[in-house]
Amino acid sequence: MLTKRIIPCLDIKNGRTVKGINFENLKDAGDPVELAKIYSEKGADELVFLDIAATEENRKTLADLVLKIAAEVDIPFTVGGGISRVSDVEILLKNGADKVSVNSSAVKRPELINELAANFGSQCIVVAIDAKEINGEWKVHLVGGKVPTEIDLFEWAKEVEQRGGGEILFTSMNHDGTKNGFANVALAQLSKTVNIPIIASGGAGRIEHFTDTFNHGKADAALAASVFHYKEISIKELKEQLKLAGIPVRL
Hints:
Layout: E1 5-13, E2 16-21, E3 24-30, H1 32-42, E4 47-51, H2 59-72, E5 77-80, H3 86-94, E6 99-102, H4 104-108, H5 111-120, E7 125-134, E8 137-142, E9 147-152, H6 153-163, E10 167-172, H7 184-193, E11 198-201, H8 207-215, E12 221-224, H9 226-229, H10 235-244
Parallel strand pairs: 1-4, 1-12, 4-5, 5-6, 6-7, 7-10, 10-11, 11-12
Antiparallel strand pairs: 1-2, 2-3, 7-8, 8-9
Helix pairs in contact: 1-2
């Protein structure tokens, strides 16, 4: 069985790590390069950096940040935010990123997934999906969760796989920052819908939430932010507890 991955996520705004609840009320959580170095040393399997306020003018900022991160960490890391064309990805991969994450730009122009997979290989294309459960239906949201659509989460996930996406990073907006656990019912349905790895995001608060998302949500990886940033859960202890629960992890 493949080992399950633990992935700290660093949401970046104006060069700093920030964290909010339900995508709002952002607070400063530290220097992203320093945090990345700590997580790399403490046993994280991968890292994800998302420029949550990405616009054309700070593309250079993100590229420079990738260079700094690559110099400090020796684990794979994914970078996302404002990526809308092949040339954006070329810069980020050249500067040291292992994977890139696309979200709103892929929904607006799905062919982007095909283009990126053809140019760089599916293994480095992560498609992030932010979705909210409304009246029992999961609907995709864009632009950092601010713009609702009528697109169904599971239909979009199928299309992502068909177009060459290598992984799906699913964030439940209902669960984000609440620390009440991951959206395991939706995650389990996603894992039945597609055959590519699913990264669970949104809702981690306690160690048992990770155990639950691997056992019940069938997630391949679990991503969290504030519980790691504010030292509420140590990655070492988390992995030890997961191993005791019979979940394969890299210690």
